[in-house]
Amino acid sequence: MISGTNISQARWIGIxxxxxxxxxxxxxxxxxxxxNNRYLRLYVSDNLSTIIVAAIGLFIVxxxxxxxxxxxxxxxxxxxxxVPAFARIGSFVGRRYKLIIAFWILLFAASFPLSQQLSQxxxxxxxxxxxxxxxxALAQNLMSQEFPHPQSNATAIILLQGNDVTDNATKxxxxxxxxxxxxxxxxxxxxxxxTIYSLERTAFTAYFLRQGYNYTAAQSLANQTVWHETLxxxxxxxxxxxxxxxxxxxxxxxxxxxxxxxxxxxxxSADTDPILKNVVxxxxxxxxxxxxxxxxxxxxxxxxxxxxxxxxxxxxxDLSRIEPVxxxxxxxxxxxxxxxxxxxxxxxxTVGMALLMAEGGLYLIGKYIIPIQDTTTTFLFTIMLGxxxxxxxxxxxxxxxxxxxxxxxxxxxxxxxxWSGESIAxxxxxxxxxxxxxxxxxxxxxxSIGVGLGFGVLIAVLVSLTLIPSLILIxxxxxxxxxxxxxxxxxxxxARKRRAERxxxxxxAAGFSVRRPVLVLGLALLISIPAIYISLTxxxxxxxxxxxxxxxxxxxxxxxxxxxxxxxxxPTQVLIQFPSPILVNGNLTSxxxxxxEKLSQKIIPFSNVKEVTGPTRPNGIPVNATNxxxxxxxxxxxxxxxxxxxxxxxxxxxxxxxxxxTQNSLNTVTQIRTLIAELQSSDLSLAQDTILVGGASxxxxxxxxETVNQFNTIRILTVAAIFVVLxxxxxxxxxxxxxxxxxxxxxIWAYAATLLFFNNVLQSGVxxxxxxxLFLLLYGIGMDYNIFILxxxxxxxxxxxxxxQAVVDAVDRTGGIITALALILAGALGSLxxxxxxxxxxxxxxxxLAVVLDAMVVRTYLVPAIMSLLGPRxxxxxxxxxxxxxxxxxxxxxxxxx
Length: 898
Description:
Elements: H1 5-34, H2 38-46, H3 48-72, H4 85-115, E1 122-123, H5 135-146, E2 155-161, H6 168-182, E3 190-194, H7 196-210, H8 215-228, H9 240-243, E4 253-260, H10 274-290, E5 298-302, H11 304-338, H12 345-368, E6 372-373, H13 374-404, H14 409-438, H15 444-475, H16 486-501, H17 505-515, H18 517-537, H19 552-564, E7 572-577, E8 583-584, E9 587-588, H20 590-603, E10 609-613, H21 633-641, E11 649-656, H22 663-682, H23 684-687, E12 690-695, H24 696-730, H25 733-761, H26 769-780, H27 783-798, H28 803-830, H29 838-870
Parallel strand pairs: 1-6
Antiparallel strand pairs: 2-4, 2-5, 3-4, 7-11, 7-12, 8-9, 10-11
């Protein structure tokens, strides 16, 4: 029978690794077949959340199997103190540091070329992921089937604004622009360019053909007429209902539609995708024409296609602004903390290596698993530099602390990995759990952020625990140059003397909190009450496009809304599919006429409804569609256009007074759906009909509801998983609960401040997705400093100190480093405020503020106050996990040293 703790653990680990290798082999086979198997790709796309949960389950099963087998083999432990897991890691690093450095260099060399290709698998589209069973998705599918229209995201809108866009100068500009856009090879995959003048040209050609001219002559006469006369001088060949779709009521805005035969690729970038490149090309052509024309006064290239291109261009520009600010903040703050020149470059260089390796891995993930959204790359840079630098500096600061205490280099590295390594690994685990939880959503943007950041943090923590201490073992105290050699010895002596002579700020703060815990917690509660109220009642925005307020496409959408009405941008469609055809001999059946008109009359009274059009009211005014002969040709054409190819499906178009993404518009969609449900339950003529409400507002409502529901589940799973991690590491129920609740306070305070700042100061609004993601991000990133302080308190208590003394000593020892780390992370994440994307701005402000609050308030005051109230009860936990025991002795209630 084998004995010995190390042999037992080695066997357990070996069996676990074997099971893991088998799992990875299956995963590798899946990857290799992924590209060639269409059904596999569809399955993975539709069931990614299930696959992730199954993988986690397989991981747990592998661990459990290893444990069971090791027990079956009859392994017995010999008496003696348990060797901490990270002590063995520290021992391995101490023996194999050169091999570790070589490994990371080779991995970096392999990852570098892959990282340079990451842009090839990034996408600027934030759409995708909505359930295919939602009502708006079903409506979209039915509409695509019965009412053919250009592909989504394959049309650009050019907006011309001036004093009078019907004048001759704007006409000449429009015709020249049309000619330039239609030139062969200028725009990729161009299908057509539609202007009011191209419609007039078509109408004139038809008119001259009716006059007896041949096609060539008719076309020539039509061109001459269009060029030599203005819009107001043309004969009324085009119905006013069509003209109003291109010219605003006050004649100050004109629309030009540019349709392409295909949409951008899944990994489209404005620098590489030919369709998105068209947006830049059109803007360049317009700029050249405006140089020689006084009218129009203002032009915009807008629409979904332009918004996608602007998102890509904005992401590139954001990185160019954020990168130097983030790097500069890290260098300055880390340099000030260590009072050294070389030290800040060590974590920055190693985390930079980790970033490139993570980008190489993301290239493979983006190519074979899921698309990587371009916002993820911006996030990845700031999160990895912020969090990764925090981990590296925390380890280096502990090494310096051990050296100040007089330990030699090898022993200082060993102790740093043993204690700080556990804190770092625990912190990284909570971060990865929080980011990993995002992959359980159906929203591609969040899944991309979750996968990217979780993978990046994993690489960062591995680098911090292995590469950083390896470099320290080679460089020694020279890593703190110019405070090295004799200067470091003098610095250490001064630090010991200063600590002995007078308590610092953090010792005084912790001492105050443990003496006045009720006062501290009372003040926290007083602040929390209004913060909770603001968080619960604050308004949020649902308009993702408006998240790029400085983009030309977004400004164009605003101009479009002002000129043509807010509801024109994203109308709501009500689709009614009857059990039998509703067109008989070219006329609408009487039953269909009654049903459609009844539904229209019920919808119109809603306060936010501006107009309802459909088969019974082609121009918004009721007509008798059962007798088409009595209607004008334009009315007949409009009616037939609102009836599907199957002659069973009718479409009502509902225009709202408000923009489609306001809360009022979303509420109106809910009202319409409720009305339809009531009518179908009370009216037998409607009971057999399929009625669906779709459109921009309905899609946003369904997506928001689905996302919120998913996040409610994810919140519970995330908090539960983090609680288990804290319980295992800290061995205490109260401490795990303290960590969960204290970071919750930071989230509430930060979110309330974000609402006040963005809604009232910037007046730009807060996207509804921000509080949902903020919860996960802060329970991951914000938990860092709680873990750092709680594990240090546990370490001090394990030395035999009573709880209050352990708290004060832990805060005293870690106060400076944790504050420095918080400022570094806040500086890195705060640089997101330089972004042109409101989503990133909101995240940057909220997370940076929460990190500072957590480090300066929660960790310095609240945690000591809670620990003081708990006393020895703070260490209550499962017997097998408890780390601190007082051997049945009553712990002193106070300490003179506090």
